[in-house]
Amino acid sequence: MTGLRTPLEIRSGGVADRHEIVTTLAEAFHNGALAEWLMPGEPALRRLAYRQYAHVLFDLAIIGGRVEFDVTPGAYGAAVWVDYSNLERDHGLTGPGRFRGAMAQAVGEQVADRFIDLRRVIASNAPTEPHHHLAFLGVSPGHQRTGIATALLRHRHARLDATGMAAFVVATSEHGRELFGRDGYTVRQPIALANGPTLWPMWRAPITGARP
Fold first, then answer.
1. What SS3 class is residue 155?
2. To 10 degrees, what angle do helices 96-107 and 43-64 make?
3. Which of 91, 94, 120, 140 is 20 to 30 A off residue 84, Cα-Cα?
4. Measuring CA to CA, how many Å separate 2 from each of 5, 145, 147, 157?
5. Threshold 0.70, pTM exceeds
6. Cα–Cα distance between 52 and 46 in angstroms, integer?
7. Where are the domains of the chain?
8. What confidence tens digit (pLDDT) does each residue in 196-211 have?
9. What separation in angstroms does the CA of 80 have from each of 2, 29, 77, 105, 109?
10. Which fold has domain 11-204?
11. 187 phi, psi to nearest 5 deg
């Protein structure tokens, strides 16, 4: 992996970054074992469907609030964080009813149900302790394995450590599990999806005495 030569100026993203964030997430996640489990079929169709999925997630996350986006210049790297510090929430970016309706309209009933199944699995394995949930960490293909994902993680971890807040993520690949492990996450009970890949819920306790 080629590391970053200069520090990234990571900033908070928002509505104005919609196109760039959606593009980055769709390009980062439309391939792989989990994507194939969620959306079986032709890769080209899955790519289009994932873009629709990313649009749904972004728009409903903005409506629902408590979601924060950390982005690089050009938003070719993006991290989507959900604040569960008070735990009075459904463990997802949006309520399940609204999400399913939007997904069914965008990608069809069968695919929408598969996404709902995934959300239920993640919710049933969600921590009971206050935390911030890293829902997505995506880097566009042309910028992957250059240290951007690590930079995004450490940008947020500095804030969480300063406030004593833990972090939670579900790694969807062995590469992701290794990436998060290097930054202090430990694996909880793995999840074996029915006829699908293994997922790894991971927890990171805050580092006491850290500075923002």
1. helix
2. 150
3. 140
4. 9, 7, 7, 22
5. yes
6. 10
7. 11-204
8. 899 999 999 999 765 5
9. 24, 13, 10, 23, 25
10. Aminopeptidase (3.40.630)
11. -80, 135
